[in-house]
Amino acid sequence: MSEYKMPRGIVISGTGLWTPPDAISNEELVQALNSYAEKYNRENADAIESGELQAKPFSSAEFIEKASGIKSRFVVSKEGILDPERMRPYLPERADEELCLQAEMGLKAAKLALEKANKKPEDIDAVIVGASYLQRSYPAIAIEIQGALGIDGFAFDMEVACSSATFSLQRAVDAVSSGSAKAVLVINPELASPQVDYTDRDSHFIFGDVAVASVVERKENCNADSAWEILGTKAKTVFSNNIRSNFSYTARAADVDPFGEGKLFRQNGRKVFKEVCPMAAEHLESQVQELGMTPANIDRWWLHQANINMNQLIAKKLMGDDASIERAPIVLDRYANTACAGSVIAFNLHSDDLPVGSKGVICSFGAGYSIGSLALEKVAV
Ligand code: CO8
Q: For 219, which of 126, 270, 336, 350 is 20 to 30 Å away at the CA?
């Protein structure tokens, strides 16, 4: 466990949220999977009958909403996902001279964050991109966005699955507190849809695409009307195989299909639920205690957005009967699980209403396992 006590005076001065234009309801998604399954079962009737193949089970919109709280999700392109002949998005390859899709998404969120923080690219000297998947290994997506914005400084990518946003915010805090950067643009473009197996009823509904971004800087340089001062950060990882993707560039050398069985996102959802909820609640409780507070002092919890039942359980463990949707807002009903971006979306959409002096915690939990959190206080600037 690493607990980092940074000097005070570092703030998140603005965040940006870019939402893709296409939305897919549970009903649309289920219709596509069920048409696919019906055709698969019809075409393979003999093999299914002889036990050589298993029939594809049907999905249900009621199950999805009850089991997860998800009603809809945004994706960069819905067309191919809903085509039973395709069952994956269609995202045409771009020329090297064009911005790649993930950089384009990140750039849109970054511009919104800069505007909110009242900052220009010349005020920034470091860019960190954190995401569950990166569209390519190099050159870094962060350097591509740095170039597009004309930022002078350094940039790098990092991946810690669902905790990529909180961990990248923590790296920004480290950089500003050590003086290696004066203002850091943290960008989390989650392009999840290409890694979803839309033919698998257990996981076809879970993810959505989105991009968020944040500006981290010293309070004395902040030009926004108000900001959120970082009171403390906390990170923890424990190895687990319960959420895994084996998609790898080594598939070619291993003579295996890079998109074969188990190569896309897969999880043991029940186990994740059971193991991660108590870990996250203990992590958060101990963090606020280390900062001389109790959960009752926290006005808002911007929790990771994977499953509504998970969030309600954690909120109940932290706040008891005082747990409410107002204090632990939900965005996964509209956005689904956006991997690392969920808690930052919740922060972006549900923090402006709080007065100066309010306290809140951004927290992610997921694959790794990984848990990352930042305790914040709203300050006048
Ligand atoms: N329609 C109808 N029935 C279904 C469906 C469906 N779509 N899906 C499953 N069922 C069936 C199952 O087959 C099962 O049937 P049976 O009992 O006959 O075997 C029954 O319903 C119950 O299934 P589950 O036990 O799986 O259902 P749960 O109640 O556990 O709900 C959830 C499943 C929603 C997945 C739940 O377990 C959950 O949300 N767990 C938490 C998971 C979580 O938080 N994971 C974090 C992952 S995200 C992350 O870390 C980032 C990874 C990187 C990002 C990747 C981007 C692509």
A: 350
Examine residue 303 and state whether it is found in any structural domain, yes or no. yes
Q: Considering the domain boundaries, does residue 304 fall inside one?
A: yes
pLDDT of amino acid 260 = 87
Q: Give distance in angstroms: CA of 272 to centre of ligand 1.
A: 10
Length of the chain as a residue count:
381
Active site residue 162: yes
3 vs 235, more confident: 235
pLDDT one-digit tens code per residue, 274-318:
999 999 999 999 999 999 999 999 999 999 999 999 999 999 999
Shortest-distance atom of ligand 1 to CA 162: 51
**Half-sphere exposure at residue 200, Cβ-oriented, CA atoms within 13 angstroms:** 15
Q: What is the pLDDT of residue 8?
A: 84
Residues of the chain above pLDDT 70, percent: 98
Q: Whose CA is nearest to atom 57 of ligand 1?
A: 192
Q: Separation of 364 CA from ligand 1 center, angstroms?
A: 18
Residue 213 belongs to a domain: no
pLDDT, average across residues 97-116? 98
In this structure, is residue 253 part of a structural domain? Answer: yes
CATH for 338: 3.40.47.10
Question: Residue 154: is it exposed, middle or buried by C-beta count within 10 angstroms (0-12/13-18/19+)?
Answer: middle
Q: What residues flank ligand 1, with Cβ below 6 Å?
A: 59-60, 63-64, 67-68, 132, 161-162, 192, 195-196, 201-202, 205, 207, 243, 265, 267, 269-270, 272-273, 306-307, 310, 337, 339, 366-367
Distance 329 CA to ligand 1 centre (A): 22
Atom of ligand 1 nearest to the CA of 304: 44
CA distance 326 to 81: 34
Q: Is the pTM of this model over 0.85?
A: yes
* Domain encompassing residue 268: 2-10+227-380
The total of structural domains in the chain comes to 1
